């Protein structure tokens, strides 16, 4: 089961929080903040408990395409980089 909430602190700042519980794991807490530096560039910070993981990333928007580059730090596994591409169809 998951429950989450998002709140626009300002026009360019979004804060999110989520709680997750399952029959096999303890409660996990996730949270993050996204700050839009401009209409095309945003910066994200995040955290997750159980195990504790910190993450950060940048995103770039171009018309109907969004490119996300992120890194995650795990206490035992170290740094894990990631990249994703989001394509939007239809009206912007």
Q: For the largest beta sheet, what order do the strands appear in spatially?
A: 1-2-3-4-5-6-7
State the shape.
Answer: globular
Largest sheet: 7 strands, antiparallel
Please estimate the helix content. Answer: under 10%
**Average pLDDT value?**
91
Classify the beta-strand content into a percent band.
over 45%
Q: Helix segment count?
A: 0
Uncertain segments of ≥5 residues (pLDDT<50)?
A: none
What class, by secondary structure content?
mainly beta
Q: What's the gyration radius in Å?
A: 15 Å
Q: Layout of SSEs?
A:
Layout: E1 2-10, E2 13-20, E3 28-36, E4 41-48, E5 53-62, E6 65-74, E7 78-87
Antiparallel strand pairs: 1-2, 2-3, 3-4, 4-5, 5-6, 6-7
Give the tags.
single chain; 92 residues; mainly beta; seven-stranded antiparallel β-sheet; 0% helix
Structure description:
The structure is a single chain. With 92 residues, the protein is an all-beta fold. It has strands at 2-10, 13-20, 28-36, 41-48, 53-62, 65-74, 78-87. Strand 1 and strand 2 (13-20) form a beta hairpin. The protein is globular and about 40 Å long.
What's the quick description here?
The protein is mainly beta and 92 residues long. It contains no helices and seven strands.
């Amino acid at each position: 089961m998951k429950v989450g909430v998002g709140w626009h602190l300002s026009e360019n700042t979004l804060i999110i929080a989520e709680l997750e519980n399952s029959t096999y794991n303890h409660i996990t807490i996730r949270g993050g903040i996204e700050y839009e530096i401009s209409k095309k560039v945003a910066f994200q910070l995040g955290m997750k408990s159980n195990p504790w993981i910190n993450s950060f990333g940048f995103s770039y928007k171009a018309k109907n395409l969004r490119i996300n580059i992120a890194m995650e730090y795990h206490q035992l596994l170290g740094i894990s980089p990631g990249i994703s591409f989001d394509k939007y169809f239809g009206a912007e």
